[in-house]
Multiple sugar transport system ATP-binding protein (Paraburkholderia bryophila), 387 residues
Amino acid sequence: MANLANTVDMTDAIDATGTADMADAAGLTNPANVAVRNLTIRLGANTVIENLDLDVRAGEFVVLLGPSGCGKSTLLHSIAGLIDVSDGSIEIAGEDMTWADPKDRRIALVFQSYALYPTMSVERNLSFALRINGTPKAEIARRVARAAEMLQLGPLLKRKPAQLSGGQRQRVAIGRAIVREADVFLFDEPLSNLDAKLRTELRRELKQLHQRLGATMIYVTHDQVEAMTLATRMAVMRGGVIQQFGTPAEVYARPDNLFVATFLGSPAMNLLKGTMETRDGAVYFCTPQWRLEVSAYPFKHAPAQALPCVLGVRAEDVKVGAGLSERAKVSLVEPMGNHRVIWLDYHGVQVASIDQTKTPVALADTVAFSFDSEQVSLFDEAGGERL
């Protein structure tokens, strides 16, 4: 298949398709579903993805989230047709595209690099694929004008990439995808080269763009903030396996395993080891120092006897204040502007609390705190799965 290093040529191989009949003057009309079935990808002796299933509904914004090397970009590139699959199938709009050429998949891809032609103006970069495809001039003008208006590129159309900022170049790269009016838009970490302020601005623009287009979008990132703010559903990946797939709220509040629990959240979910026990008809999480009743916890499989487990609680569900049940020494205070993170040394375990009060707290103070028992997560200690 194609050399991934040659991103400009590959982008145009994908872009150069006839799509005028897919959309009318009002914009995109054909968002497509994507179905990945039993997908396996081997690169040399390494199995990067094995027996993976993924269903993306038409019009969704699905984010593939995970650490470097987890297979998220490989999955995206296989959907785009840039990587040969070893087994399984890929369907777009109900049509088997497993072995279709990239140009026949009705997709548009935005790479991490901008993939712009340096000698062409913004206008010619936007229109290049349409011109080589023989799209009528009036249709090219309509699409370019529409993309430029959406992305606020109008004043920049005559400039060349060297005369643009990083954020402007990325908007042009996104505009190249928009003029395609494709069935599925694929984004491979498009904001990772930008500074924090530009990432925030473009993240907002991407979300608004999705709302206006109603298009199917699949987006790869290792940034949990991008995933949480952009996704209608997100797939958290590790080692080529989807660990959990759901809405950001579901994945954050009810992680399926310890990896998801600790990968999402800043600071990460607090974890404490103990046992699950039943006493006098009530269920408790117990450690040698304390116990917390969790009778209302929605167990997947309620333990019949004492079970080694891990209690997880988000920092915002650890309350600090007078009159609460537990006591610990403050080991660190991190001011964050509209809140602060108070780190507590609790029997040798560091517990983070997100606190929005203005109560004076100093290093080495002993403070009272408690866990919100209705917001905890419980995991099997051996396998790490949610109980």
Summary: Residues 196-213 form the longest helix (18 residues). The CA atoms of residues 203 and 226 lie 7 Å apart.
